[in-house]
Design a protein that fits this description.
Layout (H helix, E strand, L loop, with lengths): L32 E2 L2 H10 L3 E4 L21 E3 L4 E2 L10 H15 L7 E4 L5 H12 L5 E4 L2 H7 L5 E3 L14
Parallel strand pairs: 1-6, 2-4, 2-5, 5-6
Antiparallel strand pairs: 3-7
């Protein structure tokens, strides 16, 4: 049984959504294919697309007392995904945009015809923004999975703990 969502007619904005990211999203994204969970599962099982998670990562608080141990909150996502956190905001700092571009190149193997399946969570504009941005970079086969990990988990599909892809000042790629 699929989750039941309130039917809200949300129009696509002309640009990127820049606030209130956890809110009802449009049913469409111009230029992209919109996936339901069953379609995302078929692509995942067939290995015909690359999954990109854009859920933000909570930053380490700057004012922690000396000696405090910081533990990142674990992220469970679709197995094999590339996690590119903080890349779905409406406005990106230059370093974050560069991180997103490089992450997509890594994920796609430099092939802009590879199917990219971009997701976050249900009612999260971050994945809509990131998919729109990938289209603007010239990726020709972009799929937006608006139910994200919420829909995936609800369907009883496997989840895996994930680590973010490293930024330029970090060392090694995350295991998949």
């Amino acid at each position: 049984m699929a989750p039941v969502y309130a039917q809200v007619d949300v129009a696509e904005p002309d640009g990127y959504r820049i606030e209130n990211y956890r809110a009802p999203v449009p049913a469409t994204l111009a230029g992209a294919r919109v996936l339901a969970t069953a379609e995302a599962e078929m692509i995942w099982r067939a290995g015909t697309g690359v999954f990109v998670d854009v859920l933000p990562r909570a930053p380490k608080p700057q004012n922690l007392p000396a000696g405090t141990i910081w533990r990142d909150k674990p992220r469970h996502n679709i197995p094999g995904s590339f996690w590119l956190p903080d890349t779905g905001y409406g406005k990106l700092a230059e370093a974050t945009e560069d991180y997103f571009r490089r992450g997509l190149v890594r994920a796609s193997g430099g092939n802009n015809a590879v199917l990219l399946v971009i997701y976050c969570q249900t009612d999260c504009w971050m994945s809509w923004n990131a998919a729109k941005r990938a289209l603007s970079y010239g990726y020709r086969h972009v799929a937006w999975y608006p139910e994200g990990t919420d829909g995936w988990e609800f369907a009883g599909l496997p989840m895996a703990e994930s680590q973010p892809e490293p930024r330029s000042d970090e060392e090694t790629p995350s295991p998949r």
